[in-house]
User: Fold this.
Amino acid sequence: MDPMNAQNAYEHEIDLKDLLFVILHQWKPVIAVAIAFAVLIGGLRGIPALRSQGNAENAAEKEEEYKAAMEQYENAIAYSEREIQNIVSTIETQQEYLENSVLMNLNPYSLYEAKSDLFIKTDYEIMPGMVYQNTDYTNTILQAYQSIITSSSFLADSIASDETDIRYLQELVSVQRGSISAVSDPGSGKTNNAGSSSGNTELTNILTITVRHSNAEDAEKILDGILSQIDTLHRQIVKNVGDHTVQSVNKTSESAVDWVLADKQAEEMRRLQTLRETLTQKEEALNEFPRPSAASSTGSGAVKAMIKYGVLGFVLGGFIIVFFICVWFLMSDRLYSSKELRTRFQVKLLGTLPAARKSKQNRIDTWLDRLEGRAVQASADSEYQLIAANIKNHTENIKTILVAGCASNESITQVASYLKEHLPALQIIAGGNLLQSADAILKLPECDGIVLIEQCGVSAYQAIELELEKISDLKKEILGFVVFE
Assistant:
């Protein structure tokens, strides 16, 4: 492809690898600028703090602030530790309850219920035609039975159990007052106790004692113990409240499913999990609670401030210089690498040579060149031999070769001298810059082929394009490029 057409069709793309090595090759100015910013910002922020440390009044103020902060810190730590202790105690209590409670360990989908209905009758009667009626103690008596039967003292007297704590037995026993639905008949003025769901609910004088357990035997045993104390309970309530009679009218034992118990068990497990999560959060917060830093009169606080802002300045300075290097690389028209020249102009690359400055490079720059794949001083002789061989293979009908380009005159003369020595059959003419040297332009028509010498960081893509244009106008053959890297 013609180099001019290749240039017109070329679309420039940013090579991130090249950009990275551009930054790495500038490690000296990057470090220098970063250190300058570190010293500047660290000094600006640290010196005032260092001066204030020497002030006795300021030191005393700092000491008071530290004592106040330390006191607040200790109070917060003590409060958090008390919270954690309370949560730990609650978790232990909850675990003990879930492990030992009979109710919490029942299978809500397969449990047994033993029930007994107690009918309680009082001698209360409504006195027709009387304005003042006798006091009705029926509700009070029923409530007394409900309260006493479920009390721990009554259950302890009624049930002899050394295996189960009385508080867990209380959960198994419930006493509920029976109810019916009263349906009013407007035509007759009477009430029909038909149990219709559409009527008003009325409470009856029946108390239903329910005992739940994992098996029928234990449930009936607890219920029988309660019923055995009903006579004693009756005498006590008659004495303290009012006269009445009590009679057991029904007793059953059957398996059941308790959805309410299933929800209660799930809720208690969720409560334990919530307590554990809260404990973890509180312990993490306690461990991460910041301790106040001690006030120092020796200037260690100021030194820390200088170090902190020095590091910040170092990073900021490094970022700024790297940013400007990237902008320079993107905006620059200078040749950076031989592969870019080959890609942009589609020309032969005869070889790459180390620039003169590389003889003075330090080990870091040499290592970066090797890592990037650039020519190094140690391989210069073999590279010259390769250039001579490449030219010889492309000069069947060529007798005169012009060596020119945008590189320095010293570089062009160096290449021409070497080619004269190793290609004696060819006439090698050392030219110069085809864009700046009139002598080089006058030599251009006399040659059969041209070897262009370019130098990274010196040759510009626009100048190379103009060189190719001049050569194309005279219809001269370009043997290839030699690039000093």
DSSP finds 17 helices and ten strands in the chain. Confidence is low (pLDDT under 50) at residues 183-198.
